[in-house]
Structure prediction request, 64 residues.
Amino acid sequence: MIINADWIEWNGGACPVPSGTEVEIKLRCGEQFVDVAGLGGAWALDWRHGDDRDIIAYRIHKES
Prediction:
């Protein structure tokens, strides 16, 4: 499911993008930031669900 045109809803599971991909992430708690998939940071490594800091949506990051 798409959220706000280019956001992709995430329901947990294995990381959906290749390692090294820059993604913008929305967490269940409302936080939003850019991270690199698979290369550091808890969110970059763990796309599974289990608490209020779950990833609920993502999109490929495009610099403005």
Residues 28 and 51 are 8 Å apart (CA to CA).
